Amino acid sequence: MIGTQLTYEAPDTLKGVLDLIGRQGYQVLTADQSLVSTMKKGAASPQALVSLRKVPGLATIGNESGELHIGTSTSYASLLKHEAIGQYPILAQALATIQDPHLRHNCTLGGALHYGGHAHAAVLAALMALDAKAVVLSREDDTRLPIQSFSQYGKRVPLPAGKLVTAVVVPIAQQTTGCYLEIEQLSGRQPAHGIAVTLRSSERGVEEARIILAGFTEQPVQLQPIETSLNGRPLNLSRIDEAVEMIDENTLPVTAGNGPKGYYYQLAKVLIRRSLTQLAG
């Protein structure tokens, strides 16, 4: 519940935004208003909101130097319709799992990276699998952070005060295959459990695997031990069996959902088997 009186600011430049969000109690209001949802849950209590709606250039999509640049005020619906998404099937598959029209037309990467939430899980998992990076600005500098740096062992890692994500950059994946799969459950419009996988392969087998589970934890979680077990080896049924059996409390720290952990481990095993079998051909 929001019970405090808030100051509202809407600068029309990035400099104006950065000057304000560096102040005590000021927080950015992303285009999808994820902060408002966070405040209603009592998880945030800012003194002032800094809107991005007047800042130009934050809702653009384009290719630059062989990379896809996505402005963080771009809606998921706009991204899914853009011609550039055809180069990234795994991202298109993840976006397509968001069935709720309100979420699809209002969710943005800005909300995903600044405030998180299960509605963004599939998209963040796909971006992690694609080795995407966030362009982060402050008054002092700008940098690129891997999307996986916003998640640590399945928990959200918040941006420091005064930082603003303006874009997400996705590299063109060479010799890489991938997919996003989900398991639908009787949960209304709640996000399902899913998996994002990319494999960079050569004649000798898997050179680099990225396996990300979504919906099991607060933020998508990368299964690095399983990735390591696949790297440098041919992908066959035996390797897939080994990967599936590695799922336990050490590789997957289940924190979301009300069911027994064993149930979620089984869901994860099904997703790993299905995705790797699909990519193995």
UniProtKB/TrEMBL annotation:
FAD-binding PCMH-type domain sequence ranges: 1-175
Keywords: FAD, Flavoprotein, Oxidoreductase
One GO MF term attached to the UniProt entry: FAD binding
InterPro entries with a match to the protein in the record: CO_DH_flav_C, CO_DH_flav_C_dom_sf, Diverse_Substr_Oxidored, FAD-bd_PCMH, FAD-bd_PCMH-like_sf, FAD-bd_PCMH_sub2, Mopterin_DH_FAD-bd
PROSITE patterns: FAD_PCMH
Protein name as it appears in the record: CO dehydrogenase flavoprotein C-terminal domain-containing protein
